[in-house]
Amino acid sequence: MKTFIPEALLLLLLANLTLTRHPKGSHSLSYLQTLLTSPDFLEPQLIYAVYFNDIHIERFNSREEPPRLMHCAPWVDQQEPEYWDQRTEEVLKLMATYKYILKKMLHIYNLIETGNHTIQILMACDVLPGGNLSHIQYEFVFNGHDYVVLNEDLRTWTAVGKAAEVLRQNWEASGLAKSLKTYLQHKGVKLVLRQLVYGKEILLRTDTPKIHMTRKVRADGKITLRCWALDFYPADITLTWQRDGSNQSLNMEVIETRPSGDGTFQKWAAVVVPSGKEQNYTCQVNHEGLTLTLRWEPPQPSVPIMPIVTGLVLGAVLMGAVVTFLIWKRRTKGKERAGSEFKSPWEYQVQLRVCPVT
């Protein structure tokens, strides 16, 4: 049976959650939205996704029937049906707004509505312990070239492109930045608290990273050492290389932390070193579940397998030959003894003839 938690209890329950187990006690929330038009579509298509700590928790696709916001995480379906109805209405209103903006931008560039066009929106924030917002982010991109970005002062915008400049002026005049902040302070924080209440057993866990190092010879004779971290949670982790204790961050290649697809994450950092100098380099791993210094260890020389196998085969053949010979020898002696004990009458006659006369 599902248990629904009233909104009034969310803040009270937050006090009992160990938020400080995560980096700086913060949690990230991201809204990714894409509006598409195509000659094949009668209506623009909206794809809407919500991520909590890089975990996909909600999705919406306007081409599905009926168009409805759906959950993607195992704990999210515990929320009451009224929540999904309200959130679906919010997304449908957003879609109507984006369609209106798209028409305006197409008009500025004198483009037809039935062509291939895209609007992409990223809205994100971090929620600190106690429900305070940090690092609010909003980006709007039209057809991959015009974009509008909210500045760090959370009041003004930076625009690139003719249509984007018109949009920036409208947004600053209407106070959109303030509205976004208000939305995230209420709806965004509430969404974060919901995830922590319903999914705390999964979201507040710690999975220790599995660490290993690989070595690869480059075409120029140098060596690439790559430090891997796999199957860890939460996502925050640092991998740094050092040479004899000196930081090599400027000389290393590192990828962004990536989801593994099973609720955990993966990351690697690589450095190019002179051949024979691998032992001078160490990889420093820092994660909530593990702090480790890793050094390349050459593989131990292995005993050649083929000579052992060949020896075993030859030994088996030789043993078989010896056993066969012994069996044959035994049978031969047995026949000789049998022949001396059971002589034929003719053999006795021959023996009688040759016996000397005494």
Automatic annotation (TrEMBL):
Is Signal a UniProt keyword of this protein?
Answer: yes
Please report the stretch or stretches of sequence annotated as the Ig-like domain: 209-293
Spell out the Gene3D superfamilies in the cross-references: Immunoglobulins, MHC class I-like antigen recognition-like
Q: Name one GO biological process term.
A: antigen processing and presentation of endogenous peptide antigen via MHC class Ib
Query: Which segment of the chain is annotated as a signal peptide?
Result: 1-20
Q: Which GO terms describe its cellular component?
A: external side of plasma membrane; extracellular space; lumenal side of endoplasmic reticulum membrane; MHC class I protein complex; phagocytic vesicle membrane
User: Where does the protein end up?
Assistant: Membrane
The UniProt keywords, alphabetically, are: Disulfide bond, Glycoprotein, Immunity, Membrane, MHC I, Signal, Transmembrane, Transmembrane helix
Q: Which CDD domains match?
A: IgC1_MHC_I_alpha3
- Which Gene Ontology terms cover its molecular function? peptide antigen binding; signaling receptor binding
Q: How does it sit in the membrane?
A: Single-pass type I membrane protein
The cross-references to SUPFAM superfamilies, in alphabetical order and at most eight, read:
Immunoglobulin, MHC antigen-recognition domain
So where does this one cross the membrane? 305-328
Role: Involved in the presentation of foreign antigens to the immune system.
Q: Family assignment?
A: Belongs to the MHC class I family.
* Protein's UniProt name: Ig-like domain-containing protein
Source species: Peromyscus maniculatus bairdii (Prairie deer mouse)
